[in-house]
Amino acid sequence: MQAGTVLDGRYRLIEPIGAGGFGQVWQAHDPRVDRLVAVKVLTSDGSADHDRQVARFTREAAVAGGLSHPHIVTVHDFGSAMHHGRPYAYLVMQLLPGKSLSAALEDAGPMPLSTALYTAACVADALDAAHEAGLTHRDIKPSNIMVQENGEATVVDFGITKGSDARHDITTTGVLIGTPAYMAPEALSGAFDFRSDLYSLGCVLFEMVTGRRPFTGAAWHLINQHLKEPPAPLRTLRPDAPVELERLVARLLAKDPAQRPGSADEVYDLLEEINDRHFGDAPAPSRGSDIASEVWLSPSEATDGAVIPMRLTAHQTCPDCATTGDETKVLDCSTCRGEGRVVAKRHTYKVRVPAGVKNGQKIRLRELGAPGKHGGAPGDLYVTVHVID
């Protein structure tokens, strides 16, 4: 593949932006909805292993495509075709801002503690959503986490995710699934569950705070460390880390899964609590709220796609009556006419509706919701489509 190649008659490759598991990742343009996307491409090398790699690609599309969460990459499309006589498969994803956490750590070393806590909380939040859906990621590591400068993080690469459905498991007997530097002891023998992801998150958090992995060395030495040796206490490598953070990392890296936190949601709460207690004067960025709205289309607009102006209105508490707590005064207020709130801001967006939408379909528009706080990303806008004759 090279710049300018058009995949499957639609996606024009612009430039390579990285390499994912079993494939190269390109920035590309999708003219059908006029947006930039990330496209992971797997080109056949003629090996017998190709079918298994395509199966992994297909699973990544099915698994990640079924999860809708602000900290999990959005999958737009999946397909396969021929290019210069060779078969290839491709996965089209949201083009994420920022860089991989592995690149960020390589460039800058240990992260500010509040940023590390927030990044880890984003990952814990994503894992909680995946675990609630019955899925275990199995390959949480810095290169599978995309981060922005403010620490906002998104989890990518669900290609080896394991679910309760047997169709979601492509483990090959005798093949190590995952990345040894970040794998839980039980995962090294193929016994994954959600607590294995928490161990991997502990490894990542340790590296964000200290600038080094909890265990290093050649493959089998590394595996022996995961199985038998305790990691260095966090504060011996980062003395300014809160003692509560050291305790949490120790729990995440417990050899016995039963000694780890009970859920990713619990980890998220603990990270938030530590951040609030020790870095309250500099609040961590927080994402804005999602907003729901509706749009009405003609059948031709639904079939062909359209750009629709959408006016959103933000409100604030009525300054003349709602702050008094007097319900009678609210009802009689001439400023807000009994609503208790007034218009604070109006903004009109031009919303691009893709071709082929159905009546009742909900479209997710990233970062068009309520603004974030302290530098956090805006929420998303969810638009329900109504097709009218």
TrEMBL record:
<keyword id="KW-0067">ATP-binding</keyword>
<dbReference type="InterPro" id="IPR011009">
    <property type="entry name" value="Kinase-like_dom_sf"/>
</dbReference>
<dbReference type="InterPro" id="IPR000719">
    <property type="entry name" value="Prot_kinase_dom"/>
</dbReference>
<protein>
    <recommendedName>
        <fullName>non-specific serine/threonine protein kinase</fullName>
        <ecNumber>2.7.11.1</ecNumber>
    </recommendedName>
</protein>
<dbReference type="Pfam" id="PF01556">
    <property type="entry name" value="DnaJ_C"/>
</dbReference>
<dbReference type="InterPro" id="IPR008971">
    <property type="entry name" value="HSP40/DnaJ_pept-bd"/>
</dbReference>
<dbReference type="InterPro" id="IPR017441">
    <property type="entry name" value="Protein_kinase_ATP_BS"/>
</dbReference>
<dbReference type="InterPro" id="IPR002939">
    <property type="entry name" value="DnaJ_C"/>
</dbReference>
<keyword id="KW-0418">Kinase</keyword>
<keyword id="KW-0808">Transferase</keyword>
<dbReference type="GO" id="GO:0051082">
    <property type="term" value="F:unfolded protein binding"/>
</dbReference>
<keyword id="KW-0723">Serine/threonine-protein kinase</keyword>
<dbReference type="GO" id="GO:0005524">
    <property type="term" value="F:ATP binding"/>
</dbReference>
<feature type="binding site">
    <location>
        <position position="40"/>
    </location>
    <ligand>
        <name>ATP</name>
    </ligand>
</feature>
<feature type="domain" description="Protein kinase">
    <location>
        <begin position="11"/>
        <end position="271"/>
    </location>
</feature>
<dbReference type="GO" id="GO:0006457">
    <property type="term" value="P:protein folding"/>
</dbReference>
<dbReference type="Pfam" id="PF00069">
    <property type="entry name" value="Pkinase"/>
</dbReference>
<keyword id="KW-0547">Nucleotide-binding</keyword>
<dbReference type="InterPro" id="IPR008271">
    <property type="entry name" value="Ser/Thr_kinase_AS"/>
</dbReference>
<dbReference type="GO" id="GO:0004674">
    <property type="term" value="F:protein serine/threonine kinase activity"/>
</dbReference>
